[in-house]
Amino acid sequence: MGKRTDINSVLVIGSGPIVIGQACEFDYSGTQACRVLKAEGLRVILVNSNPATIMTDPEFADATYIEPITPGIVEKVIAKERPDALLPTLGGQTALNTAVALAENGVLEKYGVELIGADIDAIQRGENRELFKQIVDKVGAESARSAVCHTIQECLVAVEDLGYPVVVRPSFTMGGSGSGIAFDETDLHRIAGAGLQASPTTEVLLEESILGWKEFELELMRDRNDNVVVVCSIENLDPLGVHTGDSITVAPSLTLTDREYQRMRDVGIAVIREVGVDTGGCNIQFAIHPENGRIIVIEMNPRVSRSSALASKATGFPIAKIAAKLAIGYTLDEIPNDITLKTPASFEPTLDYIVVKVPRFAFEKFPGADTTLTTTMKSVGEAMSLGRNFAQALQKALRSTEQKGSELSWPTDPRPLEELLAQIGRPHDGRLQKVQHALWLGASVAQIYEITAIDPWFLEQIVAINAMADTVRGAGRLSPTLLRRAKEAGFSDLQIANLRGTREDVVRGVRHSLGIRPVFKTVDTCAAEFPAYTPYHYSSYDAETEVAPREKEAVIILGSGPNRIGQGIEFDYSCVHATLTLREAGYEAIMINCNPETVSTDYDTANRLYFEPLTLEDVLEVIHAEQQAGPLAGVICQLGGQTPLGLAARLKAEGVPLLGTTPEAIHLAEERGAFGQVLKDAGLPVPDHGMARSVAEAEAIAARIGYPVLVRPSYVLGGRGMEIVYDDTMLAAYIERATQASPEHPVLVDQFLDDAIEIDVDALFDGEELYLGGVMEHIEEAGIHSGDSACALPPMTLGRAELAGIRESTLAIARGVGVRGLLNIQFALTSGRLYVLEANPRASRTVPFVSKATGVPLAKAAARIAVGETIQDLRADGLLPREGDATNLPLGAPMAVKEAVMPFGRFHGVDTVLGPEMRSTGEVMGIDSDFGTAFAKSQSGAYSSGLPTTGRAIITVANRDKRSMIFPVKRLADLGFEILATSGTAEVLARNGLKATVLRKNADGVGPNGEPTTVGSILAGEVDLIVNTPVGTGARVDGYDIRTAAVVMGVPCITTVQGLAAAVQGIEALKRNQIAVRSIQEHQADLSALWGAR
Fold first, then answer.
1. Is 161 within 8 Å of 369 (Cβ atoms)?
2. Over the chain, what is the mean pLDDT?
3. Are 616 and 843 in contact (CB under 8 A)?
4. Pairwise CA distance, residues 1042 & 1016, whole Å
């Protein structure tokens, strides 16, 4: 039948910013879809507010709208572009919900746009809990006993029949948002209340508890001829009760009987047919009773899901690509398999290896958060590993997460067994390591199963790993046979060294001298039944390698590993750009990474992909294999963030050729003493600072500088462990805690520049010439981590003299450090003086934003500089503008605003005040001709409700902010807002002629005549905007309660006066109602014309 001829243009909706539960796996699937649709000759229109993904680069779609994903904005895009069809199944829940809204309010019908990939009825049948339950019954399968409720009262009635505990699941949400397990009525009020609010249809499902059952997923695809394939089965190591995104998972499933698997498969196929997903993929979750085998269907996602990315990388079967082809009319038997070139997509993948995924958490960023893992997802990233057996894949995956203590270990002073047994009943990050220690200390498999409900098969595997560790430790000598057996069980050189009481490099030397090295096998989708043509490799201690020889010179790019706060998709963006441009320049580009969610680990991004941990041992083995295969120009370490940067010096010490900025230059920028000397030589001022190795030293430095001071450990990313402290008590408490952040390095104590404007700069340097890529002015003052602050490009308030000074300082630092490629510098401007805060000689998280705002692909340019090209060469080649840079952008250049997106909704009880420690998971971009409109767009992208244009605003600010708040608050009142304030703020406003309704502080409680409190008003839904600036020390309790209530109610909450001023400009723009949409291609064409006219 082939491709439909009546579709010429398709609108693809992306997933928006990276949030917990909806991360870059949807950018991976959306990017794949855009590439396929363009290759099929269709005009592709994309709407996605996320600048950090390569999906929103101009070359992936014909018209790319970096605009908020709201029904109103998407309607404007539809009205302008008039697409024939809308594909909503590749952008997570955001895209699906937007498409449903557009269909329900008649927009699709009005403009004649067809929904492809899934129709509205299929979406409703898969997502609506009640309809889905009926379908499961209809196909002869079983659901958990349940009740659909729309109010708390209905929930209380339902639970009388179901009994406690009950599982609460809201409709039309994602990442388990709003879900949980209620053990009593108090829990039910809290969880069901949040769930009703999280659900766009105010609907929750209460289910009988199936806690402790085994959890499985099937990834299926179906075409319009009713061909169905099961791509992959996935098993959760954790029993039911932990969100699948937070569980360790394995593929294929390992503990099912054949009868159970076939029954699950039959039910899955019957469900996808009955729901009516006829042109795409879906994911179905099952629970199986561990003793009697009873199978329950939990839920279904009628779209490409988080697990689809994992299943794609696990099998080599490109689910998103095939889903896009099915949506435009192809059938599975008409789509060839890219890897074998012989089999069609209707040929189910077969695995001859084991895949393990391990989640990565960021609880250290949220002190006070509940670390118990529940049905609400809390992990921020994941690592995946492939091995020839479970033990090998598990151990590789654990070391891929790059977290201290994540590898299995056998300490000489273990915790007491009783303590471990008491802790493992509660699911939490690190539970598996405690289970392993408990088994090693003599607990039985039956005992651990009783406490954790982890399947005995997995526990037996861990017992075997422990037995191998004991053998390695107890052997008189490490024989070649024993060493090989340990490596086959996934032990790293470091683990073996710790067991033998020696060093990692000694074990590596012995292993190499014995000729014990891994070989690299291929992911081929067919268990070697057919030859594979895409080199997608994983290591194993087998006999024969499958790495093909090559003649072209190769460049190896080290990826960024699992997503985490501070090192996210922005670094993958730079790695992918480097890969694509090096391929164009005639090199073989080779990628090493272990993150299944990203574009860099797509099998057709690089010439070769190695799915391996980013540890010294694993990276050296890949480099060795590639040096055997053909000529190697070198390795690039500067694009993947701190992970590869941390390997640079050790790789060089092993004789590995490195490209770009040298490890010595990296040290000059990262080590405070050395960097201070660079700045001194260049005559550049820095905030007064000192290094402390003890509390006494820190107090002496603070006394000299004067409080407040900024304290932090050396060598960190994402502001890890950074705090502003206001007195000796806080300082002593910090140093006690912070030594964990970086034990080998002292604590830095810096003067904190109050009221300074923070400026971020991204630049390129080739050794001679500087290209200044972007100058971003932060909206919040210095002291808030640059990753969490909103920023504008071009800068709103900097004049030519300041820009010239910034350029001069950047050039001096680039020269002094010895940068070859990208450089990011943070400056603070206060009282007309420019201070240098820090310099990072690597790709920064702002590179994608700057590249989109200015139309210059900085990461591509950096990769070309790393292999020896100059800025002059790149200007001549058209990769950089022929003349000028970001310090002299032409007048009329578009204004771009980046806003951070916070995960506070996932971590109840965590204060939402921003500081020097980064906490955002993602970002959005607003772009328009003026700052106000661009800022308003950024807020619409970052908050579900965006900025309000009318209503009531609570203003409670610290004393230091009362003077500067008067004008923006007056403007708010002029715009028609009713101003509410606590007594102190209301008095100041009254003296300035501004009337405010007085609210009581939360701590004072409701007044004698029922006068409301700040928090009471917010929770009653009577507040539309909150301005609450925190007090330095003193009582933060009231502010904390206000900000927490803001998160619960989803009300925009501004915590700085600068943020308030920006919000007022945004509200003015919204009230003018002139919000227009323009594609990034149009913005960049305008900018090129402006450059050309100069």
1. no
2. 88
3. no
4. 9
How far is it, in rounded angstroms, from Cα 950 to Cα 265? 53
Q: Are 67 and 45 in contact (CB under 8 A)?
A: no
Distances (CA, A) of 158 to 131, 171, 298, 888, 998: 18, 17, 19, 65, 41
- In b/e form, how buried is each residue of 519-544, taking b as 16+ CB within 10 angstroms? bbbbbbbbeeebebebbbbbbbbeee
DSSP class of residue 224 equals T
The residue among 842, 687, 853 whose CA lies nearest residue 774 is 853
Quote the percentage of the chain above a pLDDT of 70: 94
Nearest alpha-carbon partner for 625 in 561, 552, 546, 557? 546
pLDDT tens digits, one per residue of 269-296: 999 999 888 777 888 999 999 988 899 9
Task: Write out the two tokens for 806.
Answer: 């910034």
DSSP 8-state class, residue 428? B
Phi, psi of 781, rounded to the nearest 5 degrees: -70, 170
Q: What is the 3-state secondary structure of 677-738?
A: HHHHHHCCCCCCEEEECCHHHHHHHHHHHCCCEEEEECCCCCCCCCEEECCHHHHHHHHHHH
Q: How far apart are CA 964 and CA 989, in angstroms?
A: 11
pLDDT digits (tens, 9 = 90+) for 495-535: 999 999 999 999 999 999 999 999 999 998 887 788 878 88
Contact 781, 914 (CB under 8 A): no
Tell me: pLDDT of 1033 over 50: no
Query: What's the average model confidence in pLDDT over 327-337?
Result: 92
Residue 377, Ramachandran bin (φ over 0: left; ψ between -120 and 50: alpha; else beta): beta
Alpha-carbon span 307 to 624, nearest angstrom:
33
Phi then psi for 981, rounded to 5 degrees? -155, 160
Burial class (CB in 10 A: 0-12, 13-18, 19+), 140: exposed
pLDDT value at position 912?
A: 63
Instruction: List b or e across 202-235, with b for residues whose CB sees 16 or more CB atoms inside 10 angstroms.
Output: ebbbbbbbbeebbbbbbbbbbbeeebbbbbbbbb
Rounded Cα distance, 495 and 617, in Å: 11
Residue 305 CA to residue 307 CA, distance in Å, equals: 5
Give residue 28's identity as a one-letter amino acid code: Y
* pLDDT score recorded for residue 470: 97
> How is residue 449 written in tokens?
């199963």
C-alpha count within 13 angstroms, C-beta hemisphere, residue 743 = 2
Helix, strand and coil content of the chain, in percent to the nearest 5, comes to 40, 20, 40
Kindly report the CA angle at 320 between 315 and 324, in degrees rounded to 5? 140
Q: Where are the alpha helices (DSSP H) in 712-843?
A: 728-738, 800-817
Helices then strands (H, E): number in the chain? 37, 39
Number of CB atoms found within 10 A of residue 426's CB: 12
What does DSSP say about strands 978-981 and 554-558: parallel, antiparallel, or unpaired? Answer: unpaired
For residue 277, give both structure tokens: 């997903």
**Tokens 């006070």 appear where?**
368
**Residue of 136, 126, 568 whose CA lies nearest to 304:** 126
pLDDT (tens digit, 9 = 90+) per residue, 545-558? 999 999 999 999 99
Beta-carbon-side half-sphere exposure of residue 43 (alpha carbons within 13 Å): 11
- Tokens (6 digits) for 18: 């990276």
Side chain identity at residue 739, one-letter code: T
226 φψ region: left (φ > 0), alpha (ψ -120 to 50), beta (else): left
Query: Distance (Å, rounded) from C-alpha 844 to C-alpha 847?
Result: 6
Residues 462-500 pLDDT 10s: 999 999 999 999 999 999 999 999 999 999 999 999 999
Is the N-terminal amide bond of 349 cis, ω within 30° of 0? no
pTM of the model: 0.89
Q: Would strands 381-387 and 354-360 be described as parallel, antiparallel, or unpaired?
A: antiparallel
In terms of Cα–Cα distance, which of 324, 256, 355 is closest to 85? Answer: 324
∠ at Cα 381 (375, 382), nearest 5°? 95
